[in-house]
């Protein structure tokens, strides 16, 4: 049965990757179908109810700059907002929000239901249809067929999902949701390179059984930050606090005594878990010398008593979970609403993907999200947007788009995945970006919104707001470069309020702003400095761009120098065995991974700078 007919793009999965993929494909003009197990779980947060953080917040802002949903949905659902690293440099400052799970799902679902060009349908996808080595559509559990020249798979933790609580285990996509077994089987038949990974989540608690009076309160920031470039603090619902408590020696003894029934420590779980988000049993084992670990108690929403205890993710048996939770200060009488658990699932080696996230072996088939070996909502959303827009472009035979490493964290993510693959669930950090001074949260719009507009992802309202901001920054920067401050007209006392020493000669406002002790606000108090701009995001940008001018210019030169060879395309049919002097191991690696550009080739593990020089010589001879 063919119902309702055919689409340009089909997206499978309504998690963070799938929803951004479907929205992006539809925004860019493709007739898009989103198929997911359950419409009620669109935008569901499988684990912690929070969005953002260092590296992750950067990607949320990039998704927003490209017209995506995550930041705006967080503004509507966020019940606590903080700027992390607020006292450090702008490159590592990051927004993090605690979200009300239900409000977040509502915000995402609302956007999906109201998106032009997008059709939603609840179904489990069991099969892919192929025409030769191209994807041609999908088949659901009920045998309904949908056709499209481009399909984006975003199945998350659901492919062959296996949930573990102690030595008990059963098949599921996550707690309470069915696994995707038939689809996983089909992908294995297609000989896509598959592996197993694992992730875990803590037990959830009933807030009415928690004694907060013995805990440290952690309020959000005041004034409350916003996530989206178009966000306003008035959009936020009521704001709440989180609390902090700690594990102790008794907690650790209880955990150690339970390790003989831990699926991780008895070898029942084979998949590798996230090193940067370890379970509590892993932490006790790895940091044996520590006698306490922090536990953040985070409200799951405004209309529920459910609390998420961040820091005690576990797959120990339920009786051990209960005992360990109740050994923690303030949780002595805590009621567990849902047990913690671990889940093992199939992922596919992302080295089998092009930079567009299209698989190299099956044309038109795209992968995004946890299926590519990543972890985290933000990583998933960023990949989803990229795969969605590229699936739409593929359906129209347009060239794929992918940002470079110097343009976006999304570029770093793509490049890391497709050139290096993953050996454990991959999450983003600012340290992964070599150009992090340029890849800041605050300038994600300046880096990406114009590109988003060209890709058809940015609507008129965002485009107009962006242009107003960009023009205001340029005008004010020009003004600061043209206004000179004359020491004769500035009393010494005034100068000393702003500067560490009096002005000895005439200076441009722009150059004064580059001094570490001068802020934009203090600069404007100098006689003759003018009124400046009132809009805080414009003022922030003017200040950052002036302060880091030298570094940013140097970074730009560095990028320009490496760009030509970085982007040099490697011919499709290139046989690396023919490259003179190239070692067998390097030949095999290049033949196996088939990088698209010289830059990608250089980042494959084991491919040395010497090998790249040989490759360059070979390419020049061929030309
Ligand atoms: P998901 O959010 O899993 O969404 C997949 C979607 O696809 C679902 O809607 C599902 O119903 C649908 N689907 C799957 N197969 C089919 C099919 N055949 N047909 C139709 N629909 C289908 N991240 C962290 O950063 N830190 C953590 O500590 C952490 N812990 C986690 C613990 C657990 C137990 C789980 C389950 C996840 C955890 N995560 C964690 C990961 C985080 O939830 C994911 O990274 C993120 O949700 C991935 O988004 P996604 O869109 O790729 O997949």
Describe this structure in words.
Keywords: Cytoplasm, FAD, Flavoprotein, NAD, tRNA processing. Its main location: cytoplasm. FAD binds at residues 13-18. The chain has 623 residues and is α+β, with helices and mostly antiparallel strands. Helix content is 35%, strand content 18%. The strands form six sheets. The protein has a six-stranded antiparallel β-sheet with strand order 16-17-18-19-15-20, with no helix packed on it. A hairpin with a 4-residue loop joins strand 9 and strand 10 (145-147). Helix 3 (70-77) packs across helix 4 (101-113). The radius of gyration is 26 Å and the shape is globular. The protein starts with a strand and ends with a helix. It binds flavin-adenine dinucleotide. The site of flavin-adenine dinucleotide has 37 residues, from helix 1, strand 3, strand 14 and helix 9.
- The unreliable regions are none
Bound molecules: flavin-adenine dinucleotide
User: How many helical stretches?
Assistant: 20
- Please give the largest β-sheet: 6 strands, antiparallel
The assigned structural class equals alpha+beta
Q: Name the beta content range.
A: 15-25%
Rg value:
26 Å
Total beta strands: 24
- Output mean pLDDT: 94
The helix fraction, in percent, is 25-40%
The CA-CA distance between the termini, in Å, is 51 Å
Shape descriptor: globular
Give the neighbour order of strands across the main sheet: 16-17-18-19-15-20
């Amino acid at each position: 049965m063919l119902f309702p007919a055919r689409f340009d793009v089909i997206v499978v999965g309504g998690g963070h990757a799938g929803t951004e993929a479907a929205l992006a494909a539809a925004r860019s003009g493709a007739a898009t179908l989103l198929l997911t197990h359950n419409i009620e779980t669109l935008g569901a947060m499988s684990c912690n109810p929070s969005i953002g953080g260092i590296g992750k917040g950067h990607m949320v802002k990039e998704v927003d700059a490209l017209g995506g949903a995550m930041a705006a949905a967080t503004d509507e659902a966020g019940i606590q907002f903080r700027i992390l690293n607020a006292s450090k440099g702008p490159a590592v400052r990051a927004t993090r929000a605690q979200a009300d799970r239900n409000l977040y799902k509502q915000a995402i679902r609302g956007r999906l239901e109201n998106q032009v060009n997008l059709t939603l349908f609840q179904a489990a996808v069991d099969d892919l249809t192929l025409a030769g080595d191209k994807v041609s559509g999908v088949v659901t559990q009920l045998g309904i067929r949908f056709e499209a020249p481009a399909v984006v798979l975003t199945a998350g933790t659901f492919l062959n999902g296996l949930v573990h609580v102690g030595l008990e285990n059963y098949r599921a996509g996550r707690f309470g949701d069915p696994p995707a077994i038939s689809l996983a089987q089909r992908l294995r038949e297609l000989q896509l390179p598959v592996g197993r990974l694992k992730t875990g989540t803590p037990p959830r608690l009933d807030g009415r059984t928690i004694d907060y009076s013995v805990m440290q309160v952690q309020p959000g920031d005041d004034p409350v930050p916003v996530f989206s470039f178009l966000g306003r603090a008035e959009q936020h619902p009521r704001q709440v606090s989180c609390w902090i408590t700690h594990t102790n020696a008794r907690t650790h003894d209880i955990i150690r005594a339970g390790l003989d029934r831990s699926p991780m420590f008895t070898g029942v779980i084979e998949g590798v878990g996230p090193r940067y988000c370890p379970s509590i049993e892993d932490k006790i084992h790895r940091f044996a010398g520590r006698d306490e670990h922090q536990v953040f108690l985070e409200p799951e929403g405004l209309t529920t008593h459910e609390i998420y205890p961040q820091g005690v993710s576990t797959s120990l048996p339920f009786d051990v979970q209960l005992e360990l939770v109740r050994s923690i200060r303030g949780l002595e009488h805590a009621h567990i609403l849902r047990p913690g658990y671990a889940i093992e699932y199939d992922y596919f080696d992302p080295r089998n993907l092009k930079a567009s996230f299209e698989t190299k072996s099956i044309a038109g088939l795209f992968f995004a999200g946890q299926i590519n070996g990543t972890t985290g909502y933000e990583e998933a959303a960023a990949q989803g947007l990229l795969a969605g827009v590229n699936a739409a472009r593929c359906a129209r035979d347009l060239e794929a788009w992918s940002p470079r490493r110097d343009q976006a964290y999304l570029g770093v993510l793509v490049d890391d995945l497709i050139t290096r693959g993953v050996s454990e669930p991959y999450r983003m950090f600012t340290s992964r970006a070599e150009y992090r001074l340029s890849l800041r949260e605050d300038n994600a719009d300046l880096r990406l919104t114009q590109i988003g507009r060209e890709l058809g992802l940015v609507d008129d309202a965002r485009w107009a707001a962006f242009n107003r901001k960009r023009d205001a920054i340029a005008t004010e920067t020009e003004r600061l470069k043209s206004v000179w401050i004359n020491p004769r007209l500035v009393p010494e006392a005034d100068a000393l309020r702003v500067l560490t020493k009096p002005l000895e000669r005439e200076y441009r406002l722009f150059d004064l702003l580059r001094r570490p002790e001068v802020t934009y606000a203090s600069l404007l108090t100098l006689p003759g400095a003018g009124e400046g701009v009132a809009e805080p995001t414009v003022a922030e940008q003017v200040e950052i761009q002036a302060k880091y001018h030298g570094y940013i210019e140097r970074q730009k030169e560095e990028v320009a120098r490496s760009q030509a060879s970085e982007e040099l395309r490697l011919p499709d049919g290139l046989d690396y065995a023919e490259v003179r002097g190239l070692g067998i191991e390097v030949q095999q690696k290049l033949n196996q991974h088939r990088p698209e550009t010289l830059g990608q080739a250089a980042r494959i593990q084991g491919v040395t700078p010497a090998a790249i020089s040989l490759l360059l010589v070979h390419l020049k001879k061929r030309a």
